[in-house]
């Protein structure tokens, strides 16, 4: 099943609705509406049907996933019973981020991307630790953008880049898991665009505290989630990038250092996976403009595609968004400054 979130207008303002997506029929199905109609067809009162629909299909995808198998069972039941009565044309809906993740983590697991990235920035070889334990950072959940939503071009950067990744969506709580146990908690896949400000990344990462403004200005998530029962072979997934309609990259999701299950299991050690968490696979080979000597500009339209999932499209704003304040450097009190480290 493919599941997403859209924004629909109502007398009380815009509401976020969970939908089942049927690309082959060029439609989405408002799940709460379908469930309410179907329940009333089984003699439930209108008020009771609304309450049940709201419980199964809140605006939060993470909250819905937390219901476990009951969520997918209710969604399939609603689609089968009243999908035609609650459908909307695929091209006429307004998308938001496919999941409102409690935590976003982004991995680094494709060696070819690592090698090519370091060659471009002159940073030597990738850190050997990445081959000993999976690497990842935590990103801001407040800057998640859905399919066809405009992404503000940050005024503090002159080199904004995309990163083509597969978003692993967690389906259930878990801590200190084995890879087999983690695999059972993998709910589905989405497309994850880890937008990056390359000219900010080098100096910022040299602080030794991980990404900050170089990452936390935009994450593209969507267009929807494809549940794992529709994914036959993760390694066989293919990807592509188009900018303004021109193909820049064609790639494949093979050669990960650690499997998705191992990545989830490692995250769970001493920590807790939560329903709806998103863990980025790491950038696929040639999945960034930096690797292929290209560069995004304000107003560019970026389309990321993963086979079996869909296409995530975002336009960068035509004008950079300039913040009203930026910190001024302070005197360095420890003698001569050390050279800045290169980006990672």
TrEMBL record:
Q: What residue ranges are annotated as transmembrane?
A: none
Keyword entries, A-Z: Hydrolase
The entry lists its GO molecular-function terms as: hydrolase activity
| Top-level taxon of origin | Bacteria
Q: Can you give the residue ranges of the Fumarylacetoacetase-like C-terminal domain?
A: 103-316
Organism this protein belongs to: Nocardia fusca
Q: What is this protein called?
A: Fumarylacetoacetate hydrolase family protein
Cross-referenced InterPro entries:
Fumarylacetoacetase-like_C, Fumarylacetoacetase_C_sf
